[in-house]
## 1
Amino acid sequence: MTKEECFYLGNIVGKFSFKGEVLIKLDTDEPETYTEMESVLIEYNENLVPFFIERSSLHKSDLLRIKFEDISTEEDAEDLIGAKLYLPLSLLPELPEDKFYFHEIIGFDVIDAHHGNIGKIVSVNDSTAQALFEIEKDGKQILIPMNDEFIQRIDKPNKTIYLTTPEGLVDLYLQ
C-alpha cells in the first residue's frame, strides 16, 4: 500500500512504559474514534509497515496509548519515536455533505461570489494558525483562509467550492 492510498493518522511522540507501549499524537478532533483499531501502517525506513495492536486506550484525552504486538521493550519503542502512522483511505469515516477532508478537495474549482472562478485548489496549508486553501490561477498562487464564514457551499459531485471572500482579499493576488 502506498501513502497516496492512505491518510495521515498521527505520529509516535514518546514511550509510555518499559513494556514497549508508545504514545501517539493523533491528527483528529475525535481521538476516541481510533481506540478500537486492529492495526496501523507505520512509516519505517521509507516504507509503510503494518503493525498489529495488542491494546490501546486514550491517554490524557488527546493521546492514544498503544501496545503493539512484537514491541516489548523500551528499546523497541524508542526506535519508533517520531514515526508517522497511516490508515487506508477506505477507513475514513463518511462526512456530511457540507464537510470535507483536506485531501479530497485537491483539484476542486473555487468560485468566488465577487470574482467567479478564481482557480483550482492545489493544496491545503495547515501549518499556520488557520488552515489556508492554496489556489492556483494562471500561474499565480492565491491563499484564502479556510473560514466557515467564507465557505458558502461545497459541491462534491462537481468538485467545486463556492466562497464569498472579504472585499479586496482576492484582488491582492490577481493584480
Note: The chain has two domains: 3-91, 102-174.
## 2
Amino acid sequence: MDLSLASEKRLLKINELEELRDYAYERSRLYKEKTKKWHDQYIRNKSFKVGDKVFLFNSRLRLFSGKLKSKWSGPFVISKTTPYGSFELDADDNKFMVNGHRLKHYFCKEEVGVIK
C-alpha cells in the first residue's frame, strides 16, 4: 500500500468528518432558534407598578414542603421599581429587593368584582 495514497484517504476522511460536524452544529443552532421562538411566544410580560399587591414565590420551600402547602407567600406591596426587572417589596416595615420573575399579581375580591 502506498503511503501517499493512505495519507490522502485519511485527509479526505478528516475533511468529511469536519463537514458532518459543521452540519450537525448548524442543525442544532437552527433547532435551538426555533425552540426559543416557540417558547417566547407563550411568555407573558408581567408589568408591576408601585402600590400593586403581589405574591412572592418561596424557592426555599421545596426541600421539606408539605403536599398542600403553598409555595407563594404574601401579599406584599411594591414600594419601588428598577429598570432592570427587580422590585422592592414592603412587608411590615421590612423592605427587600426581589427579581420580578418570582412575583405574580395578587387580586383580592374587591378588585376582581366578586359578589358574595
Note: Residues 88 and 97 are 4 Å apart (CA to CA).
## 3
Amino acid sequence: MNIHAVNLRLAALQLASGGLPVLPLRAGKIPFGNCPACLRNQCGGRPNMKTPGRCACPLPCHSWAAATTDTHRHATEWTPYWRRAAAVAYHPGGAGLTVVDLDNEAAIAWARATLPPTRTVPTTRGEHWIYRGAMPSANHVRPGVDVKSRMAYARWLGLGDGVMTALPDAVRALVVKAPAPARPAPRGLAVSGTGGECPHRTPAFLERGLAMAEQRITAADSAVHATVYRAFLAVLATHGRCGCLTDAHVDRLFTAAQAKGESLRHCTDAWANARARLGV
C-alpha cells in the first residue's frame, strides 16, 4: 500500500472512531462499483431508492449507504479498496450534518449574504459550509449550489474553520419544491378520418406504451443510462405532443429508472434531453 493510501486509511479510521461514517472514493470522486453479490440489486438494498435501505453485504458497494463508523471493517475487509482509493468521503446525513457545497465565487458571495456563518472548508473550486442537522439532499438548488445530507456523500477535505451552527430554515427551503403549475384540462383532438378523439388519449393505448417503456428499462442488463433515455424518448415521441402525459405517468417512468440505479438527477436530465431533442 503506497503512502497516500496509508494516509487515507489512517484518516478514515480516525474519522470513523470519532463517529463520522466514511467510505473510500476512487479516482474521479466516485464510490467503488457494486460487488457481485449486489449486482442488479439482488440484495435489495440500493441506497438511491425512495425507501433507503442497506443490505447485509460488508463491502463498500452502495455509495453513501456504505459509509460506516466500523473501524474493524475499514482496517480489514476494506483494505483492498483503501489500497486503490483516491480520497475519503463521508455521509453527512448519517452524522446529523448538512453540507452546502458552493462551487464558485458567485455561490460563495450568495452564501455570505444569505446564510448564517458556520464551519467552512475550502474545496478545489469553492467552499463547503457545514451545519448541524440533517435534511434531504438536492443538487443544483441554485447556480453553483448543492445540498448534501441524507442519501448523499461529500468528500472529506479537513476540519475547516469556524463554529458549526444549527441548520437554518434558509437552507431547508432550498430543497422545497415550488408547487407545480396546474395542468390545462385535456382537450379532445380530432383525428382526420375518424371523427373521434386522439387515440393517444385512449387509456389502453397509453398504458401499453408506458408498460413497454417500463419493461425495457427493467430488463436492461447494461447501458442503463442509454436505455432509460431511449425509453423516455419513445414515450415522448408518441405521447409528448398531445398532452396525454400526466405527472403520475412520468413518476412511473422515473420509478422504473430509479429501481435500476438511476438517480433523480439522471432521470430529470434524461427526460429534459429527450424533450429537447423532440422539441416538445
Note: The first strand starts at residue 22 and ends at 26.
